[in-house]
Design brief:
Blueprint: H1 3-14, E1 24-29, E2 32-38, H2 41-44, H3 51-63, E3 72-77, H4 81-90, E4 94-99, E5 124-127, H5 131-146
Parallel strand pairs: 3-4, 4-5
Antiparallel strand pairs: 1-2, 1-3
Length: 147
């Protein structure tokens, strides 16, 4: 399985966000999806309920652990600062994201938390996988909100 395959699955998860910013995420290890999530801060009344955090919580329940060495997080939008911190603490091996976030991205756009050498864990980051499709989903959502 490759990054495009998993990003398409993350895009499908983003479609479940009804009224939320359409971001989907999943965690894969050894060719198996161990967790999924999509944005739900409004629904859950929880500002931390980003797709990445939801997926990390599910992975923790799946593994009975808080560390996910050897795992890859796929997410349709570049992680924010909060999610980047959680990704580092979770010891994910890789993060693959779709659309860049020029207003709040923490994987190279605005901040480079995932790429810093000042922390004790390094995360491999691959950005721009299916960026057009991921960006279009977000643009469509915000265009609809402006009507």
């Amino acid at each position: 399985m490759d990054d495009v395959f998993w990003m398409r699955r993350a895009l499908a998860l983003a479609a479940q966000t009804e009224g939320e910013v359409p971001v989907g995420a999943l965690i894969v290890r050894g060719g198996d999806c161990i967790a999924e999530g999509w944005n739900r801060p409004i629904t859950l009344h929880d500002p931390s309920a980003h797709a990445e955090i939801i997926a990390l919580r599910e992975a923790g329940r799946h593994d009975h652990n808080h560390r996910f060495t050897g795992a890859t997080l796929y997410v349709t939008l570049e992680p924010c600062v909060m999610c980047a911190g959680a990704i580092i603490h979770a010891r994910l091996q890789r993060v693959v994201f779709g659309a860049w976030d020029p207003k709040g991205g923490a994987a190279g756009s605005v901040f480079d938390i995932l790429g810093t050498t000042r922390l004790n864990h390094r995360v491999e980051v691959i950005g721009g996988v299916l960026s057009e499709e991921c960006g279009e989903k977000l643009r469509g959502f915000f265009d609809q909100r402006r009507l």
